[in-house]
């Protein structure tokens, strides 16, 4: 690799701005993607929890019906 | 349990990131040599430092797991490494953008700093298939901890080797001799470092909270004898 880039002058602001924006946008996009994945995961947990609560209630009702029949 | 304090921590992280980025664009002076492109430094370097420290933290948790046999430490180690790998992706992409802007190349193979970080990143990328290859959870946790300790020890060694190496183009801005960062740039850099460290801690806590909720749900399902909702992850350790 040649060392010519070392001697190159700083990029003009409009061209440098694109690279800087690109770097910061990559960071923000990664963050948003990660937070979205976590949000989806938490939604799934919430749905499972609701389902499980329904299952527990259904079982409680069945148990109380069984007790009534036994009496 | 893991979710405790997550909300204030998240708020502190958002404030810290906003403050740090404000300092980057409205306070830190333009670099005399690189100009506006140097602003990438404030995101790229803190991400790299936090990612590398995160790998070492993962190794420390792995040691605690091997010493105590408590699976909780394995979960901490897994989440620390997982988060640092994600940060590592950001380091590589922002670094490539910076390299293209200032050197004219997306990647420079004879630059020790870049190649050594890539080696560390690829080494940790093998952590997932390594865990996935072992089915027994106990053995998986133990072997993963050994991996985390070995790889974690490699990180500071690698860092020292790179510092000793003769760099061609990568700057050494934290030099003790002349050529170090001026005060305003150093302040901005430290603010960015703090913001990225806070972000790492927040995301680790968020991931542990989700894992804990998922673990509790599984326990509840087993206790109620309810049908399983679906196959869980084979590699991510459970947190109760």
Task: Give your account of this protein's structure.
The complex is a heterodimer of chains A (about 70) and B (about 240). Chain A is mainly α and about 70 residues long. Chain A has helices at about 5, 15-70. Chain A is rod-shaped. Mean pLDDT of chain A is about 80; it is low at about 1-5. Chain B has one domain (about 35-165, about 180-220). In chain B, helix 2 (about 40-70) packs antiparallel against helix 3 (about 70-105), helix 3 packs antiparallel against helix 4 and helix 3 packs parallel to helix 6 (about 135-165). The relative contact order of chain B is 0.17. At the A-B interface, helix 2 of A face helix 2, helix 3 and helix 7 of B.
Strands, helices and their partners?
The complex is a heterodimer of chains A (71) and B (240).
Chain A: H1 4-7, H2 13-70
Chain B: H1 6-26, H2 41-68, H3 71-103, H4 112-125, H5 127-132, H6 137-164, H7 183-224
Helix pairs in contact in B: 1-7, 2-3, 2-6, 2-7, 3-4, 3-6, 3-7, 4-6
Briefly say what this structure is.
The complex is a heterodimer of chains A (71) and B (240). With 71 residues, chain A is an all-alpha fold.
Number of helices of chain A: 2
Any idea what the shape of chain B is? globular
Helix content of chain B: over 70%
The radius of gyration of chain A is 30 Å
Approximate helicity band of chain A:
over 70%
The stretches of 5 or more residues of chain A where confidence is low (pLDDT under 50) are 1-7
**Number of spatially distinct domains of chain B:** 1
Distance between the termini of chain A: 90 Å
Largest interface in this structure:
A-B, 31 and 43 residues
What class would the helix/strand composition of chain A place it in?
mainly alpha
List keywords for this structure.
heterodimer; A: 71 residues; mainly alpha; 2 helices; 0% strand; disordered N terminus; B: 240 residues; 7 helices; 72% helix
């Amino acid at each position: 690799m040649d060392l010519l880039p070392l001697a190159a002058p700083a990029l003009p602001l409009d061209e440098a701005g694109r690279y800087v924006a690109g770097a910061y946008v990559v960071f923000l996009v990664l963050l948003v993607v990660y937070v979205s994945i976590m949000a989806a995961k938490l939604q799934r947990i919430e749905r499972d929890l609701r389902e499980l609560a329904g299952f527990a209630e259904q079982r409680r009702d069945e148990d109380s019906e069984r007790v009534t029949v036994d009496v | 349990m893991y979710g405790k304090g997550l909300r204030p921590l998240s708020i502190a992280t958002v404030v810290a990131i906003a403050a740090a980025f404000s300092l980057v664009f409205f306070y830190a002076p333009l670099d005399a040599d690189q100009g506006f492109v140097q602003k990438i430094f404030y995101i790229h370097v803190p991400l790299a430092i936090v990612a590398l420290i995160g790998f070492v933290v993962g190794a420390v948790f792995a040691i605690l797991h091997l010493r105590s046999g408590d699976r909780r430490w394995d979960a901490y180690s897994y989440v620390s490494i997982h988060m640092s790998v994600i940060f590592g992706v950001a380091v590589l992409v922002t670094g490539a953008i910076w390299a293209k802007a200032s050197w004219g190349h997306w990647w420079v193979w004879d630059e020790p700093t870049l190649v050594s970080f890539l080696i560390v990143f690829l080494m940790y990328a093998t952590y997932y298939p390594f865990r996935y290859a072992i089915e027994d959870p106990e053995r998986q946790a133990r072997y993963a901890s050994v991996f985390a300790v070995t790889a974690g020890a490699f990180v500071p060694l690698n860092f020292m080797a790179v510092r000793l190496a003769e760099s061609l183009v990568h700057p050494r801005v934290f030099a003790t001799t002349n050529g170090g960062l001026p005060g305003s740039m150093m302040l901005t850099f430290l603010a960015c470092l703090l913001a990225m460290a806070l972000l790492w801690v927040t995301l680790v806590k968020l991931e542990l909270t989700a894992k804990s909720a998922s673990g509790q749900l599984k326990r509840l399902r087993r206790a109620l004898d309810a049908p399983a909702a679906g196959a869980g992850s084979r590699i991510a350790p459970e947190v109760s």
